[in-house]
Design goal:
Shape: globular
Structural class: alpha+beta
Strand order of the largest sheet: 1-4-5-8
Number of strands: 8
Order of helices and strands: HHHHHEEEEEEEEHHHHHHHH
Length: about 450
C-alpha cells in the first residue's frame, strides 16, 4: 500500500490488517529507528493523518484501537511527543506535499522531536500579541525574540515557531508559522525549574536565528490560521476523553540518542499484556481506578466523602468519554460539534483539580512529602516501603496547576465557547482592525 493510493480501512478490518502487518514486520532485534521507519511509512504511527501525509485517514477512536493493538501485540508503539500531536497534523493541513514529505515523514518515523514555540512573556493568553520578529533577508528569515513555557525544547530537533512578519497590519494578520531548526547558533534554551522539582518547560531566546523560505507553513502572514489548527489539535489531545499525543518507551529525535538502541529493549511483559491509552504519562489522570486502589491501601475507602469524590471523578471521566464518542459519531456523518475540544480541555482541568484534592485527602499528611533530588527520592522510598503510589500522587498534585493554563487557559476556553459555539458577541476592542504597530504596549 502506498501513501497516495491506499483505500481507507476502519474498525475491525483495520485491526485485522494491523495484526497481519505486525506478524510480518515486528522484530524486537531491529533498532528503534529502523522499527519506527517501518511503522511510520506504513501509516501506523499517526493513522489519523491523511493517506498523503503518512497516515490512514481514520478517526481518533480507530487511532486508539491501533495504539492498543500494537501494545497488545507486544511491539514498540509510535514515537510520541508534540511532533506527532501538533506539528504533523498542522503541516498535513497547511503544508505543501514537499513540506509533508520533508517534515511529517521525519515525525512519524521518530527521526526528529519537536517543541512548540508559541507563548511569550507578554503573549500567553493573548497569543496574537506576540512580538518575536522574523524579518526577510534575501531568501531567509532572521528571527529575534523570546518564547517561554516551551515544553521539551531541550530535547527538540525542530520547533513550531510563531513569529511576527508584518507589524503594519492588525495583529492576527501579520503572523507566520515556521518549522524552525533548533540545532543552530542563535538559539538559547534555558530550563525553568517548577515547584515539582522538574524542568519540563523552558525559556527560548532567539538572536539572529535563521529559517529558510521553505520553512514557512501555510504562507507568509497566514500563520494565525495554521496556529489555530495546532491549538485545536492540542486541545483535543490534552482534553478529557481525547486520544492524547504521548508515546511510550523510546524517545524520538536525535538528542535522546535512543534511535540506535534495540527496539525490544523498550518492551516489558506487563506493557505487552495490557493495552494502554495514549496520553501524557503519570501526569494524566486515567480515572478513579487508581485512586480507589490507593484509598483501599490507606484504609479510607469507607469514608463517605472520599467515596463521593471517587464517584464524581468516575462520572466526569465517563462523561468526557461519551462526549468524545458523540463527536466521533457526528463527524462520521459529516457534521461537527463546535467548541467540543474546548469543553474537553475545561473538563480535563476540572478532573485534574479533583484528582489533586481527592488524592491528597486519601494520602493525608504523607502526601505533603516530596523529594526534589535523587537522594531525597531514595529516602522517601525507604520511608514509604517502596510504595510509589503516594509519590506519584504528590507529583501529580503539584503539577495539577499547569493544565488549566497550558494549551490556552480555562478563561480563554470559555471565551472561545461563548463566541464560536454560542454566538455571543466578542469582547469589545479594535485590535482586529488597528495595525499591530499602533496598538498600545505594556510598559
Amino acid at each position: 500500500m502506498t501513501k497516495v493510493d491506499a483505500e481507507i480501512v476502519t474498525g475491525e478490518a483495520l485491526v485485522a490488517e494491523l495484526q497481519q502487518w505486525l506478524k510480518e514486520n515486528w522484530d524486537p532485534d531491529l533498532t528503534v529507528g529502523d522499527w519506527w521507519e517501518r511503522l511510520g511509512t506504513a501509516g501506523w504511527s499517526a493513522p489519523t493523518l491523511p493517506v498523503s501525509a503518512f497516515g490512514r485517514g481514520v478517526s481518533r477512536v480507530d487511532s486508539v484501537r491501533v495504539a492498543n493493538e500494537i501494545a497488545r501485540f507486544g511491539a514498540l508503539g509510535a514515537p510520541g511527543g508534540l511532533g506527532l500531536l501538533l506539528a504533523a497534523p498542522t503541516i498535513a493541513t497547511h503544508g505543501t506535499q514537499e513540506q509533508i514529505d520533508t517534515y511529517v515523514r521525519d515525525i512519524v518515523t521518530g527521526k526528529q522531536a519537536w517543541c512548540q514555540l508559541f507563548s511569550e512573556p507578554g503573549a500567553g493568553s493573548d497569543l496574537a500579541g506576540l512580538t518575536t520578529r522574523a524579518m526577510l533577508d534575501g531568501d531567509e528569515w532572521v528571527v529575534n525574540g523570546q518564547k517561554v513555557w516551551t515544553s521539551g525544547a531541550q530535547m527538540a530537533d525542530m520547533g513550531m515557531l510563531l513569529a511576527r512578519t508584518n507589524v503594519d497590519v492588525p495583529k492576527h494578520q501579520g503572523i507566520t508559522w515556521f518549522a524552525l531548526d533548533m540545532h543552530q547558533p542563535g538559539i538559547d534554551v534555558r530550563p525553568l525549574r517548577e515547584m515539582s522539582g522538574s524542568a519540563l518547560f523552558n525559556e527560548v531566546f532567539f538572536t539572529d536565528a535563521h529559517a529558510g523560505a521553505g520553512a514557512v507553513i501555510g504562507g507568509v502572514n497566514n500563520g494565525w490560521s495554521a496556529a489555530n489548527t495546532t491549538l485545536a489539535n492540542e486541545r483535543a489531545g490534552l482534553g478529557a476523553g481525547g486520544g492524547g499525543g504521548g508515546g511510550f518507551g523510546a524517545m524520538p529525535g536525535t538528542i535522546g540518542k535512543q534511535l540506535s538502541r534495540r527496539a525490544g529493549d523498550f518492551i516489558t511483559p506487563a506493557e505487552a499484556a495490557e493495552p494502554r491509552r495514549r496520553g501524557a504519562g503519570m501526569m494524566r489522570p486515567s480515572g478513579a481506578g487508581q485512586l480507589t486502589r490507593l484509598a483501599k491501601s490507606k484504609g479510607v475507602i469507607g469514608d463517605p466523602v472520599i467515596r463521593q469524590g471517587l464517584a464524581r471523578l468516575h462520572t466526569m471521566n465517563e462523561v468526557a468519554r461519551y462526549n468524545a464518542e458523540r463527536l466521533k459519531a457526528v463527524r462520521e456523518s459529516g457534521g461537527d460539534i463546535p467548541g467540543m475540544a474546548n469543553i474537553a480541555k475545561l473538563t480535563m482541568s476540572d478532573i485534574m483539580r479533583l484528582t489533586r484534592d481527592l488524592g491528597l485527602s486519601i494520602t493525608g499528611v504523607d502526601g505533603t512529602l516530596h523529594a526534589y533530588d535523587e537522594e531525597g527520592r531514595q529516602t522517601l522510598e525507604k520511608v514509604r516501603g517502596g510504595d510509589f503510589s503516594v509519590a506519584m500522587m504528590t507529583g501529580l498534585s503539584l503539577y495539577a496547576q499547569a493544565p488549566p493554563i497550558y494549551g490556552g487557559t480555562d478563561q480563554i476556553q470559555r471565551n472561545i465557547i461563548g463566541e464560536r459555539a454560542l454566538g455571543l458577541p466578542k469582547e469589545p476592542g479594535d485590535d482586529r482592525v488597528v495595525p499591530f504597530s499602533e496598538l498600545p504596549k505594556n510598559g
